[in-house]
């Protein structure tokens, strides 16, 4: 297997699924009609409702749904079960469930006056479904913030060549904001300065370090040496406590040697699988929170906007380079293009920590974005549906953007698979190799790898600072009446960060990610349930949404149970686990129980709605066509 | 004009300016704003802090200018505001040699620095197809048919 095959498989499957399945559903079941008035045309207000060209809307929708999800999920799954199950699920998921969920959510909203899914659920299923939705949203924010901060902190702690690039990104963000909005300098010049400086800072992290020598002597480089010195000065006191990573994808865990076993290091105990939380780990967590604090509290033009602008260039250029490398490698450097990750590691991959990670159901919540994601459906219903100019644009916009995100996930899988290894480390190494191929060796492997780490952190960090911004405003709005202190933006921000930080310090980001995946996929099941009930209510065949809905629902319930079991077996039952880890595990089990209860409530309400609409149709027929 | 004849394409008027449009990096957050009923509150907070005060005033003036232009030309023009600090804004600046904002690009060819109304109108008029009835009246006028 090599990167060319991934391209061929991706192109063929996406072509067949789009042209022979998606178009058929669009034509025969949904019966999209270019002459039927859309909410954008009926209620045009220039703010929410605005007819928009499908080309523009496609880009908007894709930008909205593609964040860190397609990268993090894929690199975690490839490490756990191998590349083959990951690619199979990506292809089957997007072909039969992913596009259907995104597209249908848009079309249901279009046929219901542009109402959001929660409003439609309130009307079609039950008023309490909307409340359940709020519960999902709150935990989604908490879990995604904690999971992302956790993985980024682990990278910064394990790779002394990475923090400098992120520090320079922060400085360049502040500088760009000042130069563009205050000094009103030339945009092209400012862009060149800040983007080039950031890329150089990210790529040159390992300068002066021989990365082929094991163990790597990070002290030998001027940049990584300075970071190493800071880490060493803090870590003299030793580890604070231990955590476990059931997947072995934490960057602090060393890769397996030639005999397949992992060596012990100062922070990793191979015998028990325990990772020591060092003081320097706390330092980098605080560093990331400080970065997010700036993005959350400074005026947007001062920091968040310029950082996103720089981040877009850095990630866009790198991803473009990787795509070129993936295409060229099979012809110019077949050895690089060959997959090094095992194709299949078994249905129950062995876990040194005693965790239980069966392929079903865990693969299907670990890879969400790229195959199927409930949040896409939510966004589609409140955003894209209100801008659709013609009903027939729904498929190329909603379905097309989902297929495009699938391509991004395939690219991430390729990067991990050609590098071998696990997690973010493998992703960054793969980026380094593909960039090396794309530039015909001009970008050395070590610098490309460092850039890969930097890009990964940037993609995640830009999302996290916005999540914290939302948590701040939400806390102020919800709890500001109970205690006026929450109305203070700094108090609200710090409170949000402390809650997320407790989860980061108490567990592992993989458990958080899988819980986040479960809440995400439960949302997908909910959106498909709404589509199924709506199709039943208007007398159409709901099978294309109903069957995936049942699959996603059962899978998510099972995955939540497994995650709860893992938390219990690998942390709570384990002797000598630190109190903070045990408390965190109980908190996460509590979240899992809440998700289960919410899922059961949804199932009961959904079943009642289904039986109701099978006999009595509530008159939710499509809006009458205008002008025939 | 024949009713079956397709309407002429409107002239594209693109305005490159610093605009409060680029914050929405992650629309997952947007979903949440809507779903928990905080959308308006969050938008207000963002709008108040997305641009420095002077640029906010500039943007307000730009909005008024665009509205006046749209009122005058109706469906014969399509106006699009492009945030300068975006990839598209960067590309337009590079391609059309724009170095100061706002800048107006008419029909993807002509560039005008600032909101110079007479110049922009002249450029738009250059690309507008003359309506058939106007042409006929002009022809009649030139012939002297409407002298009575």
Total count of strands of chain B: 4
H/E element sequence of chain A = HHHHHHHHHHEEEHHHHHHHHHHHH
Order of helices and strands of chain B: EHHHEHEEHH
Structural class by helix and strand composition of chain A: mainly alpha
Whole-angstrom Rg of chain B: 20 Å
Gap from first CA to last CA of chain B: 26 Å
CATH superfamily (homologous) name of chain B: Glutaredoxin
Major β-sheet strand ordering of chain B:
2-1-3-4
What distance lies between the first and last C-alpha atoms of chain A, to the nearest angstrom? Answer: 53 Å
Description of the molecule:
The complex is a heterodimer of chains A (628) and B (148). By secondary structure, chain A is mainly α. Chain A has 22 helices and 3 strands. Chain A has one domain (3-615). Chain A has helices at 3-30, 39-42, 54-65, 69-81, 83-111, 117-124, 127-158, 163-182, 187-203, 222-235, 279-297, 304-332, 334-337, 359-366, 374-382, 394-419, 423-438, 445-479, 489-506, 509-537, 543-572, 579-615; strands spanning 241-244, 268-269, 274-277. Chain A has a 3-stranded antiparallel beta sheet. In chain A, a hairpin with a 4-residue loop joins strand 2 and strand 3 (274-277). The N and C termini of chain A lie far apart (53 Å). A 4-stranded mixed beta sheet of chain B has the order 2-1-3-4, sandwiched between helices. Chain B has a single domain (11-22, 52-147), classed as Glutaredoxin (3-Layer(aba) Sandwich), CATH 3.40.30.10. Chain B has helices at residues 27-35, 39-49, 53-73, 87-95, 117-127, 132-143, and strands at residues 11-17, 77-83, 103-106, 110-113. Chain B has 148 residues and is of the alpha+beta class. Helices cover 49% and strands 15% of the residues of chain B. The interface between A and B is large, with 44 and 37 residues.
């Amino acid at each position: 297997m090599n990167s060319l095959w991934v391209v061929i498989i991706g192109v063929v499957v996406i072509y067949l699924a789009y042209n022979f399945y998606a178009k058929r559903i669009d034509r025969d079941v949904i019966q999209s009609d270019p002459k039927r008035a859309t909410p954008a045309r009926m209620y045009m207000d220039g703010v929410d409702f605005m007819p928009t060209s499908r080309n523009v809307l496609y880009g908007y929708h894709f930008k909205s749904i593609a964040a860190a999800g397609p990268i993090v999920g894929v690199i975690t799954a490839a490490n756990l079960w191998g590349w083959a199950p990951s690619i199979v699920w990506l292809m089957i998921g997007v072909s039969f469930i992913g596009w259907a969920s995104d597209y249908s959510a848009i079309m249901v909203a279009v046929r219901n006056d542009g109402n959001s899914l929660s409003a439609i659920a309130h009307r079609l299923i039950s008023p309490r479904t909307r409340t359940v939705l709020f519960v999902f949203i709150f935990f989604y924010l908490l879990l995604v913030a904690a999971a992302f901060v956790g993985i980024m902190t682990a990278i910064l702690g394990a790779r002394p060549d990475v923090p400098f690039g992120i520090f320079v990104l922060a400085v360049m963000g502040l500088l760009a904001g000042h130069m563009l909005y205050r000094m009103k300098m030339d945009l092209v010049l400012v862009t060149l300065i800040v983007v080039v400086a950031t890329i150089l800072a990210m790529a040159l992290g390992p300068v002066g370090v021989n990365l082929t020598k094991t163990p790597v002597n990070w002290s030998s480089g001027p940049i990584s040496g300075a970071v190493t010195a800071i880490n060493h000065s803090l870590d003299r006191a030793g580890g604070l406590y231990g955590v476990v990573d059931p997947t072995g994808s934490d960057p602090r865990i060393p890769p397996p040697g030639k005999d397949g076993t992992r060596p012990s290091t100062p922070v990793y105990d191979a015998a028990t699988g325990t990772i020591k939380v060092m003081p320097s780990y706390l330092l980098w967590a605080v560093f990331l929170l400080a970065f997010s604090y700036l993005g959350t509290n400074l005026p947007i033009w001062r920091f968040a906007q310029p950082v996103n602008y720089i981040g877009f260039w850095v990630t866009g250029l790198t991803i473009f380079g990787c795509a070129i490398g993936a295409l060229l490698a099979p012809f110019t450097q077949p050895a690089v293009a060959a997959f090094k990750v095992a194709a299949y590691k078994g249905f129950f991959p062995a876990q040194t920590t005693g965790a239980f990670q069966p392929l079903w159901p865990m693969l299907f919540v670990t890879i969400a974005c790229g195959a199927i994601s409930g949040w896409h459906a939510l966004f589609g219903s409140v955003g894209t549906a209100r801008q659709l100019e013609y009903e027939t644009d729904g498929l190329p916009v909603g379905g097309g953007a989902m297929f495009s995100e699938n391509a991004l996930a395939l690219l991430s899988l390729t990067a991990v698979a050609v590098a071998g290894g696990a997690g973010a480390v493998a992703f960054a190494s793969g980026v380094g190799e593909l960039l090396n191929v794309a530039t015909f060796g001009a970008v050395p492997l070590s610098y490309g790898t460092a850039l890969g780490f930097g890009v990964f952190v940037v993609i995640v960090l830009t999302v996290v600072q916005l999540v914290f911004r939302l948590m701040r405003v939400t806390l102020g709005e919800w709890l500001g009446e109970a205690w006026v202190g929450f109305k203070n933006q700094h108090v609200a921000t710090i409170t949000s960060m402390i809650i997320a930080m407790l989860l980061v310090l108490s567990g592992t980001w993989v458990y958080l990610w899988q819980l986040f995946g479960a809440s995400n996929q439960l949302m997908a099941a909910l959106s498909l349930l709404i589509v199924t009930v709506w199709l039943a209510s208007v007398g159409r065949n709901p099978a294309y949404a109903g069957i995936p809905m049942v699959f996603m629902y059962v899978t998510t319930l099972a995955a939540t149970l497994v995650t709860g079991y893992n938390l219990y077996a690998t942390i709570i039952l384990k002797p000598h686990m630190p109190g903070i880890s045990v408390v965190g595990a109980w908190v996460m089990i509590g979240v899992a129980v809440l998700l289960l209860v919410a899922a059961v409530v949804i199932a009961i309400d959904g079943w009642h709605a289904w039986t109701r609409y099978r006999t009595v149709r509530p008159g939710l027929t499509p809006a009458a066509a205008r002008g025939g | 004009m024949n009713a079956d004849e397709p309407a002429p394409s409107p002239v594209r008027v693109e305005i490159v300016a610093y605009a409060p449009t680029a914050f929405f990096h992650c629309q997952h957050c947007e979903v949440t704003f809507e779903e928990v009923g905080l959308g308006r509150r969050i938008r207000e907070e963002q709008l108040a802090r997305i641009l420095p005060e002077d640029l906010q005033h500039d943007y307000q003036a730009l909005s008024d200018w665009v509205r006046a232009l749209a009122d005058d030309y109706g469906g014969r023009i399509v106006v699009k505001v492009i945030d300068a600090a975006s990839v598209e804004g960067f590309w337009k600046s590079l391609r059309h040699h724009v170095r100061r904002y706002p800048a107006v690009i008419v029909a993807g060819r002509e560039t005008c620095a600032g909101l110079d109304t007479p110049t922009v109108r002249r450029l738009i008029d250059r690309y507008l197809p003359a309506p058939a009835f106007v042409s006929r009246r002009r022809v009649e006028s030139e012939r002297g048919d409407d002298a009575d």
